[in-house]
Amino acid sequence: MRFRAKIVDLACLNHFSRIINTIAKLAKTCILRLTVGKLYFILSDKVANGGASMWCELCQGNFFDEYQMEGVTAEHNEIYLELVPENLSRALKTAQSAKAVKIKLTNKHCPCLRVAVELPSLSSSSRIVTHDIPVGVIPRRMWNDFREPSVPDFDVSIYLPVLKTMKSVVERMKNLSNFIV
């Protein structure tokens, strides 16, 4: 298994960081599924115990300038990792003014996502801050537990009165309370 990605564009980095921050607020741990074209953040707590479920699908081309991934085998070209999104969020906070961010799957003492942040410097040499985020590799026999949920077709329509009328009503009612039903 191999994974390596690089973000150079600061806007893409900020957007990716905001997504990770949101996921970190929702869950203590989540599953990161890596495929050739997409990244998935999956949260599947037991709904019966009051937990939440989440499925976040990101096209890698929208965020990464370089993206290389080799899965377990040629027919199962995916990687499933369990990680603490708060750790990834903290690592990306150091990258707010970065020139580039490299994310790589390593296995030194344990499997880790290495986040290398290249920071600008006043001298000709650049500074690189490295964060190793421990991850758990999900075995292939458990991959079916993290398949895309089936969502029923939805049809939502919202009808509002003329905006000018609604604005005048809301302006008058805001003196009564902070909330309206």
UniProtKB/TrEMBL annotation:
- GO BP field: double-strand break repair via homologous recombination; meiotic DNA integrity checkpoint signaling; mitotic DNA replication checkpoint signaling; mitotic intra-S DNA damage checkpoint signaling; nucleotide-excision repair; telomere maintenance
Q: Offer one Pfam family short name for this entry.
A: Hus1
Localization (cell): Nucleus
Q: Which domain of life is it from?
A: Eukaryota
Indicate where this protein is primarily found.
Answer: nucleus
Among InterPro entries, the record links this protein to: DNA_clamp_sf, HUS1, HUS1/Mec3
**What GO CC terms are in its UniProt record?**
checkpoint clamp complex; nucleolus; site of double-strand break
What keywords does the record list, in alphabetical order?
Nucleus
Asked if DNA damage is a keyword of the record, the answer is no
Q: Which family does it belong to?
A: Belongs to the HUS1 family.
Q: Know the name of this protein?
A: HUS1 protein
Organism this protein belongs to: Atrichornis clamosus
